[in-house]
């Protein structure tokens, strides 16, 4: 059965919601760790009334191994937000979002190394293309400053930790209801970021009301609403279709950064972006074969 036309509009809205995350982070103007902490902590509090009951019932039924995997998944997600959000302080929105979206390629690599899953020739080509694209983006950052190159490195670290979150969490979504899974993992990420904030001595109070307003918007729009709509879309569309739509995130984020901040990607960043998006499209397309 084909999805209703309105379903595509819902999927497009999901992409738009996810795409504004980098813009809200910049507008909040909070330290990266504080922004990451508030993003996931507020999102966790927002969904807790709807998911706490199922989480409390499901947690005792999990094996010790799965509980440890759940905790590790939350830690990986927390590190993803910490590194990726930090990257936006050093490099452009376009470069940061393009590089963090290479996570599916790292997921495939980890699946090969950890789970022994085969990599098809098409995916191997995609990885090579993505590496070439990432190299062009890094070259563009290097031409600007060493700090920009650090931003690219942090964005790649965000992609690696996001892929680790996906690989570790594989199978956990079937072990307990989706709301319970999301709440447990987000709570773990919030605890991880809370620990990092404490160790780094980053203040989480004393910011202007405008900053807190943008941090709340960051929790609501790209986190709860955006990811919620993506999960809803996965029930109406095949995963490759959703994946292809999500390739619009780097394009939308770059366009928004230009409209809001006047941030224009350079030629190398654009060329690298084309290669990265093409590589991800190959990976998504290979899921249908």
Q: Helices and strands in order, then pairings?
A:
Elements: H1 5-19, H2 21-28, H3 32-58, H4 64-87, H5 93-100, H6 103-115, H7 121-144, H8 146-168, H9 178-200, H10 209-236, H11 239-246, H12 248-261, H13 267-286
Structural features:
289 residues, mainly alpha, 81% helix, globular
Please tell me about this protein's structure:
The protein has one domain. 81% of the residues lie in helices and 0% in strands. It contains 13 helices and no strands. The protein has helices at 5-19, 21-28, 32-58, 64-87, 93-100, 103-115, 121-144, 146-168, 178-200, 209-236, 239-246, 248-261, 267-286. The two termini are 19 Å apart.
Q: Give average pLDDT, whole number.
A: 88
Helix-strand category? mainly alpha
Biggest sheet, in brief? none
Nearest-angstrom radius of gyration?
18 Å
Broad shape = globular
| Low-confidence sequence ranges | none
Whole-number count of domains: 1
Report the end-to-end length measured between terminal Cα atoms.
Answer: 19 Å
Strand percentage lies at under 5%
Order of helices and strands: HHHHHHHHHHHHH
Helix content: over 70%
- SS field, number of helical segments: 13
Number of strands: 0
